Each structure stands twice: as C-alpha cells, then as structure tokens.
Predict the 3D structure of the following.
Amino acid sequence: MSHAAPLGTRPAGEDDQPEGRSARKRRAIVEAAAGLFLDHGYQGTSMDEIAALAAVSKQTVYKNFSDKEQLFSDIVLGAAARADEFIQALPRVLAGTDDLRAGLQALARQYLATVMQPRLLQLRRLIISEAGRFPDLARTYYRRVPERVMDALAAQLGELAGRGLLRVDDPHVAASHLAFLILGLPLDRAMFLGTGHELSAAELDRRADDAVDVFLAAYGRP
C-alpha cells in the first residue's frame, strides 16, 4: 500500500495541474502546521513557528487562514477526506469475490494498514486531546471518518449477505464486530503506548487474518 500524502494535502495524482505560487505557499503552511500540531499539540504551536517552518511571512499565513483555529480545523478536515480512499476501495476488494475468506482478509489487512499509519495515529490522539476545546470539530471528524467507514463496511457486508455468503441480520452490528476484531488491540496499543510499540507488518497481517476467522465463525455460512 502506498504511503499517505502529508496530512491536509492533496493525495498524489489527484490534480496534476501546475501549482501557482500562492498555492505552493498555502501548501507549505498546511504541511508546516500539520507537523507542528502533531509534534507539539495545538497549544504548543504558534503562528510564528508555522510561518518560520513554512518559510513565509506571518502576514502570508494570516492571508490564507484567519487564525490558528481555522488552520487547525482545515488540517483535521483535510485529513478526514482521506477516508474516501479506503471507502472507495471496499467494493473493489470484495466485489465478485469467489473466496470470501481471502476477500475479507484482504479488506482487513488494508483496513489495518490505513488506520495504523503513524501520522494518522498522531492525528487521532490530537483530535481526542482537543475534543474539549473543539467539540464540533471532533464530532465532524467522527462523522466523516469512523462513522462513514462503518456505514461503508456495513453496506458491503449486507451485499455479501444478499449473495448468500454471510448470515447477517443487522449489517451495522456485524460491521462493528468485524471492525473491533480487526482494530481493537492494535489501535489501543498504538494509542496508549505510542511510538516504539507498534506491531510489525507481519503481526498486523496475522491479526487481520485471525479477526476474519473469528468473524466467519460467527457470521459465515456452513
């Protein structure tokens, strides 16, 4: 799986039109701010530091963003848009599969690879830590990322049930079970223990495969 673009920026290839000077400066500001917010937190980051790291004037920063809160919000919601990549990939992973277990394993591995990216984990910690200060932003991120992913996963499980491949009464309940089996331990470990305690790629793949086996034991057809 390819590495993600910096938080708050366009994924590579999304728009190959040449970038103007103003657009380059704005992108530099967003990238600098994203790195500082993730490394030092919202309170620990100043607009002066953002301007210095982006190699622009403070006036240029304020020309693009009215204040630090707007810049923080734009970065969080820009990262939220990246959930679309995983959501759009779900039908391609499962559509027309002849091997349900292999298809679900591929989905589980991709799900873990997407969520367990270090910078996205840092962003998740940051959003949670600032939820008291920015409750509306935290709720918006939740609706645009975890909730939308669950809806998309439920839709795919419902389709598999409609094809007679799964026994599912409530696709949303089944989706929540599958998601927790896949993410529960690795995500908790990453969120609480932080850098240096990540599971290896092989361990994540094994976790994904085991999660699918448990899920199929409950929802699979004989």
Notes: The chain is about 70% helix and 0% strand.
